[in-house]
Protein 1
Amino acid sequence: MTYYNKPSNMSNKDKIKPRGRPKASGFRKLSKSVTVKFSKPDYDRLCLRSRQANRTLAEYIRDSTFNAQIVAKHSPEEASTMRNLVGMANNLNQLTKLSHQAGINRTKNILMELLEKLKAIMNEYKSSERRLL
């Protein structure tokens, strides 16, 4: 322990204790920073939320970062399945329009094939969802 302002004629009992706050341990010391940009409306919302939580902006961001639940983005397989579903939905709309123009009998077989594909994709999605849980 280092002592300050100790005259040479003072005994060990009369030692002056250091002033100020003790240094933080290396574990708790905040030494790294991260830059994040926000739009003006998002920044205002963030400031409002931090005030409502009665925390400084830095404390609020730190707390919300470590207490947040992260939802992963879709995997490439899921994105491909969604694109297929969107394409099939487009085909279904076109077939509906054709059915109104030409009659349901002309588009019945195509509609049944499309419905079977949709059922297969939905069953595949449900089974992969169960494996994740």
Protein 2
Amino acid sequence: MRYLADILTLSRFILAIVLFFWAILGGSTEGAFIIFFAAVLTDTFDGTCARKWPFPKGKEPKYRKYAALYDMVSDVLLAASQVLFLTLHVNAIFGISVIIFYVVICSIIELIVYGKFFGHPDNCTPNSLTKKNFPLAKKLVLVRRYIYTICIGIINAVVLFATSWPNPVKYILFAAGCSVYIYMWLFLRQRRENISRDAVDIEKELTRKAKKEKK
């Protein structure tokens, strides 16, 4: 069971690639929704599985050193593939609008929190919000996650209602999707608590580095 989280993450990566080519080749809207929804389910439960069945400390497989990177790449590729399908086959204006909105918001948050794009708490600039007010920076990072979740939910709903399925089926699937996203929302709240606990250690590390730079 310890490998279940890794299997789910790998499955999401594979589904993201399948969805990408599905969009390029002009697959059905129904198929796109099923692929994406299955991938979202893996995203919903891989973190839960990782916490419930962790590897013993010091005995994790070497590839898990980059587990966070694998997870992030899978999420980005999946979201990009669904937006691509939406833009090419459902509503181009809406798809492009979502892309612009998300990129602009995330870019602003990155610049404020880290002082540069693709930043991280341990390599941010001296004028970044992370250096000046870490608790506030932490909240902005969570805002970005919330925006991502909301955008993905809206995109999938638009794709769902663009299918040829009967309305009762659409409503049932929509309700199921809402249940998944409510779970993810609660999971993000739990992640917020985890970040709060880790914040003390990160702040200590930032303080240590700052003192070292002054010497």
Protein 3
Amino acid sequence: MAARLDDLDRKILRALQSDAGQSLDEIARKVGSSKTPVWNRVRKMREAGVMGPPQVVVDPDALGLEACFFVLIRTSEHETEWQARFLAALKARPEVQEAHRLAGEIDYILKVRVANARAYDEFYQALISEVRVFNVTALLSMEEIKSSLALPI
């Protein structure tokens, strides 16, 4: 169920999405409020699960993780035990930034960030040694055109 947010809550969220490191004073100034009401609203939105814990966005290129692969996985296995092993394998791999179960011909799509093609192959070999998959297609992103965690609020 969607949380009930008023205009001020949305302004606060937009400000935090653009820069979560801002001080409460800066956010209050931007949204036209004072520090205490902003702090109370942020606390309530955190308690309601509207916001998760703050995270730092790290530049992957600065760390040498220059290759981004989108990995399409088809499986012939749909049993609960296989799914549990597969999900555990994905969660244990720090290279997997995102994993989605899909409707349609492809069962899963992964966003995998690694240094290069050799590192991707190591990831791939480790994954298929842990769980059996029917088909894997890896697509190398040539250029990241847009990347945002901000939601349209």
